[in-house]
Amino acid sequence: xxxxxxxxxxxxxxxxxxxxxxxxxxxxxxxxxxxxxxxxxxxxxxxxxxxxxxxxxxxxxxxxxxxxxxxxxxxxxxxxxxxxxxxxxxxxxxxxxxxxxxxxxxxxxxxxxxxxxxxxxxxxxxxxxxxxxxxxxxxxxxxxxxxxxxxxxxxxxxxxxxxxxxxxxxxxxxxxxxxxxxxxxxxxxxxxxxxxxxxxxxxxxxxxxxxxxxxx
Length: 216
Description:
Order of helices and strands: HHEEEEHEEHEEEE
Largest sheet: 7 strands, antiparallel
Helix content: 25-40%
Distance between the termini: 81 Å
Number of strands: 10
Structural class: alpha+beta
Shape: rod-shaped
């Protein structure tokens, strides 16, 4: 009985495998005749190739669009940042110029600048509205000027004595700011910038710091 049962089990497995193989090859043939199978497989391969080509085309078009945007979009950054010590008035005057170095206009440009020193911390100086907002065309500029003896809604200003000490030391004041704008592709962009006072002999000015200068 045991041997007969084993034989039946093996026969069942063999029949199942035979049926599975037959069904697989029937599916694989995709037709009743070799010619039909070849045509069916040719159509399937063509469909797969078409899908692959469409996906590749879509990827190529996307990469081309991204490349075009990068080449033609607006790039607004700082072209000049200067500081001047006005000894008679006992203050520093700061001047910031931003330029669009791209090939298309930058819209709704907002230029923000602030100065701060080690004792007072950040002091926000909002630029005049006319200088801080507007459209900047390629190779055009937007600028703002402000002084360390004028504060916006704060009493954190530098006294003439403090300015004289900073000027003598050649350090102790920073320029910090941000440019925000919308490019021609309706994407929001920004440029952060940060400079610090330096003095070398009788020359002094502003130099970019290692941190705080980035853009998207």
